[in-house]
Write a structure and sequence with these properties.
Blueprint (H helix, E strand, L loop, with lengths): L1 E5 L3 H13 L3 E5 L2 H10 L4 E5 L7 H11 L5 E5 L4 H9 L4 E4 L4 H22 L9 H13 L6 E4 L6 H12 L5 E5 L5 H9 L16 H4 L4 E5 L6 H13 L1 E3 L6 E3 L3 E6 L3 H6 L5 H7 L2 E4 L10 H16 L5 E2 L1 H9 L5 H15 L4 E2 L41 H23 L4 H8 L3 H11 L9
Parallel strand pairs: 1-2, 1-3, 3-4, 4-5, 6-11, 6-12, 7-8, 8-11, 13-14
Antiparallel strand pairs: 9-10
Helix pairs in contact: 2-3, 6-7, 13-15, 16-18, 17-18
């Protein structure tokens, strides 16, 4: 969540920024109202903290501008002690709240966190509990959903496993205005002999083991939405019957000749290339075109890196409540690696790893000892960094003086960094990259070890050389 802070006192601006960075906010600082307006134009801010005593345009005037042009942004005005008249005017002008200087960190933290919870609840209620943070590419998909959902045309949702295709489907149902249920079925999880009765229902005694009348999912989803997950795995023989349902809006239960009219909106999803299935005669081309009237392609999480931090903090909050923990966030180096990690399992993998980390973490901040990657995190240029550089042992007792700086302090620093890198990497590998254990054994605090790792360019999962 983006927090704009407008205060011309650098020390106050810095202190508030640091406080909310630790709370997991993305903080944008401005030192005048004019700069704050520019920041608002450049960023999609969620909350604003504005000081009243600003040079030029004062805080009340800036509040008026914000409420006129960005009416959804809650604004907290900071006033001097005893400025009740200013506070009252601020509330009348649309301020969410005001705080008088001097103030306790706990007070402003609680006020802002209350706004965050209120905003999150509001947006979740509007999006069917889909979530709050979207990258630009996801925002475009959400906008498209809002446009097409009120029609009855089928929608095909594609994307890798774990990208949130079912949540997209739920959002489509939420925006459709349909009063019926959202019903979901995984077409790959139902045996071929049973999926027809699951979808269309069955009369008593129509198949072996039938105990009575079975109401199918199409009937259950009447006036609602039926989501066919993994549609690419649907048996080819059943596809013709599904095509007829889409065309005629009617079904027949297994073992019956009676036609039942239904009004279920059909959404389908797959993580495979259906066009390849068509070429191999495993999927009907006519069904594909009937389903693919609107196509929503959900990008993998590695292409939505701006969401990772916000999703991760959201999952921490969820699992803090579930497991009665009070974890505040992630070590900065770990968070950088999380953002650059490939996340082949996408949001599902991220959520599972954070749940595991929350369970085993005994600190306020999750570090490498609690959240382990299966492979090295990628750097921004896509390559794995930070293999240690060994000493050159070809000349003069291991030092090639012809290639090192002539200045004593520079030369010593260079080899000191090489020693630090090799020494730390050796012990990290020896302790299976348990940072806390390594720090304890080499006599450093965990924070000091992280600082040294950052200084010499060590990230994680690289071999000692």
């Amino acid at each position: 969540m983006k927090l704009l802070i407008v205060d011309d006192e650098e020390s106050v601006n810095f202190a508030i920024s640091e406080l909310f960075i630790q709370e997991g906010y993305e903080v944008i600082s401005a030192y005048s109202a004019e700069e704050g307006i520019i920041k608002l134009e450049q960023n999609q801010c969620d909350i604003a903290i504005v000081d009243y005593n600003l040079p030029g345009i004062n805080g009340i005037d800036l509040l008026t501008i914000i409420k006129k042009n960005y009416s959804s942004i809650p604004v907290i005005l900071i006033t001097a002690f005893g400025s009740e008249s200013v506070a009252i005017e601020a509330i009348k002008k649309g301020a969410y709240d005001y705080i008088s200087k001097p103030f306790e960190n706990t007070m402003i933290r609680n006020r802002i966190n209350n706004i965050r919870e209120s905003l999150t609840h509001k947006v979740k209620s509007e999006t069917g509990d889909f979530g709050y943070y979207f990258s630009p590419v996801m925002s475009a998909i959400i906008n498209k959903i809002e446009t097409v959902s009120k029609t009855d045309i089928p929608i095909l949702i594609t994307g890798e496993s774990g990208t949130g295709k079912e949540l997209i489907a739920k959002l489509c149902h939420h925006h459709s205005g349909r009063k019926g249920k959202f019903i979901s079925i995984n077409c790959s999880a139902i045996p071929e002999g049973l999926i027809e009765s699951e979808l269309f229902g069955a009369e008593k005694g129509s198949y072996t083991g039938s105990q009575g009348l079975k109401i199918g999912l199409f009937e259950q989803a009447d006036n609602g939405t039926l989501f066919l997950d993994e549609i690419g795995e649907m048996p080819i023989g059943l596809q013709a019957k599904l095509l007829r349902v889409i065309q005629e809006n009617e079904i027949m239960r297994v073992g019956s000749a009676h036609v039942i009219k239904i009004n279920a909106r059909i959404l389908a999803a797959t993580n495979i290339n259906i066009e390849d299935r068509i070429k191999n005669n495993n999927f009907r081309e006519d069904l594909y075109y009937r389903l693919n009237v609107v196509h929503l392609k959900v990008p993998p999480l590695r292409q939505r890196k701006t969401e990772i931090k916000h999703l991760a903090m959201s999952f921490i909050n969820d699992f803090n409540n579930k497991y009665h923990k009070n974890i505040k966030g992630f070590d900065p180096e770990l968070l950088d690696d999380m953002i650059n990690y490939q996340w082949k399992g996408n949001i599902r993998e991220l959520k599972n790893k954070i749940e595991h980390a929350v369970i085993i973490c005994n600190n306020e901040w999750i570090g490498y000892e609690s959240l382990v990657f299966e492979e090295p995190a990628d750097t921004p240029n896509g390559k794995v960094e930070n293999h240690a550089v060994p000493f050159n042992s070809t000349q003069d007792n291991g030092f090639d003086f012809a290639t090192i700086p002539e200045m004593y302090t520079e030369a010593k620093k260079q080899f000191s960094d090489i020693f630090d890198k090799n020494f730390i990497l050796y012990h990290l590998n020896k302790n299976e990259w348990n940072v806390k254990m390594t720090a304890d054994k080499i006599g450093l605090s965990r924070q000091d070890l992280y600082k040294k790792m950052k200084k010499v360019g060590i990230k994680k999962n690289v071999e000692y050389s």
